[in-house]
Amino acid sequence: MSEPFSVPVTVRGYETDSLGHLNQSVYLQYSEHARWALLEAAGVGQAELLAQGIGPVVLKTTIRYLRELRAGEDVEVSCAFEWGEGKTFRVLQTIAKADGTVSAEVASVGGLLDLEKRKLVAQPREFFKKLTTDPALFGI
Question: Which pLDDT tens digit goes with each residue over 118-140?
């Protein structure tokens, strides 16, 4: 199996809390950034989704904090899709320091919302498979 898709991020000083640690809410922002970067790399940007009347939604997110991050540290934020049979999928992510130490694990449940019907698309994997230029990035 190939390495999961990842993007580099440098922790910025204004993202830290009063203890000098990366603020807990920023982990979500880094995760969101990596998910959109994967979609863009696979040829499925916001414009393409909106043209199809579809919007990605996050239904649940769990973050496991393992090691602190501080301003100036470089991290890699990975992103891997995990498919089931229903209307939802999982996105598994890690935020790892340059030395490989995992700082956080992020697991999300997502779906694709039909913006007109306001209901989840029945087979999101099939939707992505038709729209993407690189299905391997989605693990399909």
Answer: 999 999 999 999 999 999 999 99
How does pLDDT run across 80-115, given as a tens digit for each residue?
999 999 999 999 999 999 999 999 999 999 999 999
CA distance 33 to 77: 9
CA atoms within 13 Å, Cβ hemisphere of 64: 9
What pTM was estimated for this model as a whole? 0.94
Which has the closest alpha carbon to 9: 28, 131, 57, 65?
A: 28
The region that residue 100 occupies, defined by phi over 0 for left and psi between -120 and 50 for alpha, beta otherwise, is left
The tens digit of pLDDT for each residue in 12-71 reads 999 999 999 999 999 999 999 999 999 999 999 999 999 999 999 999 999 999 999 999
For the chain, domains (ranges, CATH) are 5-133 (3.10.129.10)
The distance from CA 89 to its chain's CA centroid, rounded to whole angstroms, is 12
The Cα diameter of the chain in Å comes to 46
What whole-number distance in Å separates Cα of residue 15 and Cα of residue 35?
A: 19
